[in-house]
Predict the structure of 4-hydroxy-3-methylbut-2-en-1-yl diphosphate synthase (flavodoxin).
Amino acid sequence: MEWHAPQIVRRNSRQIKVGSVLVGGGAPISVQSMTCTETLDVAATVAQVQALSDVGADIVRVSVPSMEAAAAFKSIVAQSPVPIVADIHFDYRIAIACAENGAAALRINPGNIGARHKVEAVCQAAKDHGLPIRVGVNAGSLDKDLLEKYGAPNPEAMVEAALRSAEILESHNFVDYAFSVKASELYLCVAAYELLAQKTDAPLHLGITEAGGLTAGTVLSSIGIGMLLQKGIGDTLRVSLAADPVEEVKVGWAILKSMHLRSRGVNIVACPTCSRRGYDVVGTVQTLEQRLADIRKPIKIAIMGCVVNGPGEALHADVAICGGKNGKCLIYERGELMGRIGTEEILERVESRVRALAAGDEAPDTKVNSVSK
């Protein structure tokens, strides 16, 4: 009997629109990241936004700490290939300026914006320009009265902070908002999202904040975000890493692809290698990832070092290589053995076939050489 992965039933949430990207309401789970350049350096920031877009970022957030940065933000938005979210704290005038300067959404905490008239002005600017607001709650910056009430950051305190902010927005007749309730502690973060998901139908932006460097942060984020996605919770996500933000997008997509929630680009299955390998598997995978980074069509590639597990993986791949002996390896396409090629041909052969498939050429590769032993 053929086995199928379980289908994830996503939580029902209302929908917002971040520029051209729909979030919530059954829309595909979007992948976000945030620039780490100096916002006043427009050229560097635009270059980073483009790099993030190239690897699959649907939405990019930019920090706007000053009115000068708000002016630069306008130029960044004008050159961006994806919707840009303005990240603002404290000064409501910056939020208004960003709304006027082309932001696709605002990320604020109503509590640190200040007086009622300031929050009302931000809400009005968002309504005037058709922008949603993301309320960002962080376990490390909860209001003093909540810490006194609960004694320490916990899921109840974080959810109360989120709902308190929602009440403020709704008192200004603003309902086009989303939430995030992030923490660096894995189980605290997951529990806060689970509790909040029961209390609201607003879209939820997933993330484990301050998750760490590339390796530790990838592991922590993958576990936490994966736990929530498995339960149907989450409408958009950001993997927070102390690393090149391009890596955040790559990890975000890897999470979604591994859980069969979205597909994009090549998916390379590769063995961890051992002494049976017939060629340089690690180097081959690294080179193919670089060469095929521009491919958008979902294509599965299997790069296997030997014929122990290789043929089995090849049955489920669009293009597959299995290491053999004497400088030769087997090549498969759509599960069919096409023949043998020299190991020096692997990169060119795989790349050419993947690009042909991506371009819509469904005709299988011409069989090469003999498949006899």
About this structure: Residues 97 and 185 are 35 Å apart (CA to CA). The chain has 13 helices and 15 strands. Confidence is low (pLDDT under 50) at residues 367-373. The two ends are 32 Å apart (CA to CA).
